[in-house]
Amino acid sequence: MKSQLVLSANAKEYVNHKKNTNFRMFINRLHSDFPPHWHTDIEIIMPLGAPYKIICSNQSYDVEIGDIILICPAVLHEIFSPAPGDRMYIQADFSGMIVLKELEKAFRLMSPALHIKKKSCPPEIYESLRNNIDAIMKLYYGDKQFIAMQEIPDDDSFITFDELKPYDELEIYSILLQFIALCSKKINCFKGTDMGLASSSFKNSIPLSNVCAHISEHFTEDLTLEDISEYAGFSKYYFERIFREYTGVTYYQYLQQMRINYAQTLLSNPELSVTDISCQAGFASCTAFTRAFKKSTGYPPSQFRLLHEENHPLNTNPVFAGFDIKKTRGGS
User: Fold this and answer.
1) Could you report the per-residue pLDDT of 196-228, keeping only the tens digit for each?
2) N or C: which end of the chain has fewer CB within 10 A?
């Protein structure tokens, strides 16, 4: 779909995104904010020349140059641009991979977003993640991908996206799965400082990350504090204390937020009523669901549904622009 990107009074750019793919990668060079919106794609953002401030489900992230943030599917987010500069975006649709149970689990554990800080991330992990992104860029832009990182020409440019080469999309998604798998396996490296440290006695038993994974598989069930304490092998009172130390919230707050995150995904299906969604997400009643959902997101479920990118004016916002290189700077 063609969109017009206004760069200045005399510079305009017309963009056609890649055809026949559920994936896109682009560089945003404009100094602009994005209003609250959500989509079922995952979104990966890496500031290259200027930081971003991103709010995901009422959590704030200061994403510095070189940091990477992965925003999970169906998460309401808002983006603020404090200064002009390049930022790299990846958007990918994983809804067709629902058979991969661990993929859903990974997103639930990362939700609402996973902030990978360049300064504190172990160098070997950061390098692997950056190599994944670089490999995707090479596939997406071809052998001239470096041009995508150059300054935009001052004159008008007409940029055309053609189709990816055969099986390039498959390879891109395989790399993205590697990226997500590594993030999931090393999630304590990224969330450890934010979530606190578990007691040494608990580390000798079942890691709290495994308990959170167990919750992510059974959160729609009637999973009581007694049930999860027994699974962890501790008394209810001791488990409640160390769980809060680890996650920063109580067990029931954590469980409820996981249900709300799942409900956000279900709201992308227009055929499901709010009552159906409240039941599928594990809430006792539609009233309880609506109250909890509004407290978490700031919107009742019906209004939240209207902020989906397909209904929101953001999907025509000219700031979203990708760059192909075949018709820029004399490319063939």
Assistant:
1) 444 444 453 457 778 888 888 889 999 999 999
2) C
For residue 257, give the nearest of 279, 226, 281, 227 by alpha carbon. 281
Q: What residue has token string 């935009």?
A: 152
Interval 139-195: pLDDT, tens = 988 765 444 444 444 333 334 456 788 899 999 999 999 999 999 888 878 865 444
Query: What is the pTM for the complete model shown?
Result: 0.69
Give the count of alpha carbons within 13 A of 89, CB side only: 21
Parallel/antiparallel/unpaired status of strands 59-63 and 52-56: antiparallel
